[in-house]
Amino acid sequence: MIGAIDNAKRALRADLRERRQQRSQPALEEAEAGVKAQLDALVAATGARSVSCFLSTPTEPGTHAFVADAVARGIRVLLPITRADGLLDWAVATSDADIAEGLFGLPEPVAEVLSPLALNDVDLLLIPAAAVDRSGMRLGWGRGFFDKTLGSMEKCPPVYAVIFDSELLDEVPRDLHDQAVTGVVTPTQTLRLA
Fold first, then answer.
1. Max intra-chain CA distance, the chain
2. Residues that bind ATP, according to the entry (predicted)?
């Protein structure tokens, strides 16, 4: 049965990855503007003063404009730094931080590294996903970084996955270790799911 779940995840991820690669640059820029507006509204609605976010890759819903603006407004933003052991370290985003290619080719900040425990002080988590279903189950990209992170937190604040509108699905394949999210942020809407 586990093999069937893994195969279903792999096939869905491949389909989603291909769809993302087909988006035009103007569509990606429009999506980033929409995501920024939705994230700004979510931060305001929750009163969050400290958030975690990720630096989007070129095919993901863009988060760079949100991060830069949040930092400029005095919001503390923690950015993930991947580790070989499958955990995430964190760095505080700054307006002048360099960005480099991290483990697995993901954009990561070049800054002072904070331990995984730094995440315990945030009010809101904004995480990447390949897709999310209507029950809040998140399908990641297969390395388990965020599932491990969420599963290890004693007191987890609200968690929102940032996806494109078409990536909110009726159902995604799930394993025992998979972690659900509170809601999703897309370029056009913010939905609380759990």
1. 49
2. 9-13
Measure the CA–CA gap between 6 and 3, rounded to whole angstroms.
Answer: 5
Can you say which residues are annotated as belonging to the binding site for substrate?
Answer: 55, 60
For residue 154, give its domain range: 2-192
> The pTM is what?
0.94
Give the span between the Cα atoms of 146 and 152, in whole angstroms. 10
Phi and psi torsions of 141, nearest 5°: -95, 5
Please check whether residue 170 is in contact with residue 134, taking contact to mean a CB–CB distance below 8 angstroms: yes
Give pLDDT tens digits for 61-84: 999 999 999 999 999 999 999 998
Annotated binding site for ATP: 9-13
In the annotated binding site, the residues are 9-13, 55, 60
